[in-house]
Amino acid sequence: MEFSAIMASGATSSSVVSLCWKPNSKCTDFKFLAQKSPISLFETFKSVQSPQLDTNPLKSSTRSINSGFSCSAATLSPSSTTELVPFKLQRLIEEFESISEPIDRVKRLLRYATLLPPLDAAAKHDSNRVMGCTAQVWLEVRIDQEGKMRFAADSDSEISKGFCSCLVSVLDGAMPEDVLKLKTDDLAALNVGLPGGERSRVNTWYNVLISMQKRTKALLAELEGKSPFEPFPSLVVTADGVHAKGSYAEAQARYLFPNDFTVKELVKVLREKKIGVVAHFYMDPEVQGVLTAAQKEWSHIYISDSLVMADMAVKMAKDGCQFVTVLGVDFMSENVRAILDQAGFGEVGVYRMSDERIGCSLAEAAATPSYMNYLEMASKDSPSLHVIYINTSLETKAYAHELVPTITCTSSNVVQTILQAFAQVPELNVWYGPDSYMGANILELLQQMTQMTDEAIAMVHPKHNRNSIRSLLPRLHYYQEGTCIVHHLFGHEVVEKINEMYCDAFLTAHFEVPGEMFSLAMEAKRRGMGIVGSTQNILDFIKQRVQEALDRNVNEHLQFVLGTESGMITSIVAAIRNLFNSAKSTSGGAKINVEIVFPVSSDSMTRTSSSSSPGQNPVVLGDINLPVVPGVSSGEGCSIHGGCASCPYMKMNSLSSLMKVCQNLPDNRSAISAHEAKRFKLHTVTGKSVADIGCEPILHMRDFQASKQLPEKLVHQILNRH
């Protein structure tokens, strides 16, 4: 049997849709009132439910005439079926908008929950779970014989079930292209009356829709015979261990559980010689594996982002360490040396891990004539403030500060620093650098804020509203010629693959990623499925989501796309395993799998010896000559099109170098003199010490972090610049 629908419209504010069975059947008229009194979907909801899903998408489903009819399958004339989804969605929005009291809107949502047919118990398996929902939500998807999408869903929460019910009412029976056209922003007007504390429940709208679309794309690709994307490599962490998927992940996992003898040997020499270790998250996995294990026996080992490294070095000096070894790039050891001197610990020796220069693409971008020209331009525009990323050399900070009053920032505090500066200094011009991607992302973020309400903006910064954000945009400048070779990797190819295969996963992204990846992560963040920030922000986000899953105590598979340097994996795995160990006594047998996905470009290459890659031409990255092997067969990867899955500069810090430095201290320092982080003897053009002037922007940042205000000294420098 089939039916058609004929829409008649007249001078009144209503429309009549006639749904007619064919052949030889009478038409049944349904009157839809226009804007003034939206019709409830309750009257027609039962008729838009799909039949029981069959695992064969091509198998015809049968219904008797008495089983009702499907509005979703009806043809609205003269409108086409492509207009049916927005038509249904608009009716749903109008229905909830017509209910004035929030509690009544919640009651309506719960009413929808009662109309959702229960999902068969056999369909409630882990592969049908929707990620990111506070409650358990299951979704089953198929394509029927007419090429239309069929959705069935269920949840153990009545609120979440109501959300699912509404979405199924809109999308069940739609064509695949109409399902894919719907945007998460289209659901923003669906105010169901939940208070702010229930925001995680509201995210069910978005996460179920994303899952519907992902599975729709997968079914379409299967029917069209398209080869699926090859998945990114990943590590799956469980309470029982770690499982690597793909050779790249195997290379990362190899050192997660280091040799006990190596760990004990390192701890012995560190303890005997009172040596502290500060290391960056991006360190080589072999080094991080040993250091993470050694932390349990020697407390003066700390792995962190660049901001905390110098602070921890000071703490180690206070606790009696006579030496601090720095595992990072050169600007990090410079900062540690200078901050220790500022804190009165000039006698504590600071050592780096190579007798060669350990560079950084961002730090080098800020040391170019182009960047100095950028600052010269800033110095002519008063009042001006230079906000410089911490990943720059002390020398650059010093020369910059003499040209333009300067404050250091990190990826976690840069937005607050800029907003506070604009709020505190009238008509200020802010000049950010050197990371071009971060600069563009900051500008994009502030432009998005102009679309927010004043109340929402005040939650970001209490001194701002839409007018103030609009007024500051023309006075925000950023340098456009500096990038990090790691985060440059996350370009179009990676974003396309994430959209196709991982759109329903948790998405983490460093603030330094290109704009396309930034936008994707920000969209995920808005629905509670992502984080954009520093390496520490990323680690904290993953820990929080894993802890929430442990607290729910139900079987779950959490998938995180790691949008930063792959060296983070050691700290992430250690943190997850600590959470698992803490929860063992209360887990009640729930199985939690945490998958960390490495979005490695398909043209990534491994660092290896020249002899192992005959016929391959080396790739030059900065001052490093990298023999390469195409693909991700093992180890660390850099792409010939730009970007690295792991930082080749950071990988100049080796375990053998650390042992060499430690074993030669303190009696044979001459053998490691090239490893010592020397004090700056240079002076600026005004005759001041580079070390002293270079530290001042860092100290300004410290003051800002403590008080949430620009320090008076910096404000005075801005306003009295000549």
UniProtKB/TrEMBL annotation:
Cofactor(s) annotated in UniProt: [4Fe-4S] cluster
A molecular function (GO) term: metal ion binding
Family of this protein: Belongs to the quinolinate synthase family. Type 1 subfamily.
Keyword Transit peptide: yes
Cellular localisation: Plastid, Chloroplast
Gene3D superfamilies listed in its UniProt record: 3.90.1010.10, NadA-like
GO CC field: chloroplast
Principal location class: plastid
Associated pathway: Cofactor biosynthesis; NAD(+) biosynthesis; quinolinate from iminoaspartate: step 1/1
Top EC class of this enzyme: transferase
InterPro entries for the chain: Fe-S_metab-assoc_dom, NadA, NadA_sf
Pfam families registered for this protein in UniProt: NadA, SufE
EC number: 2.5.1.72
Protein name from the UniProt record: Quinolinate synthase, chloroplastic
Reactions it catalyzes: iminosuccinate + dihydroxyacetone phosphate = quinolinate + phosphate + 2 H2O + H(+)
Domain Fe-S metabolism associated: residue ranges: 93-214
GO biological process: 'de novo' NAD+ biosynthetic process from L-aspartate; iron-sulfur cluster assembly; positive regulation of sulfur metabolic process
Keyword Plastid part of the UniProt annotation: yes
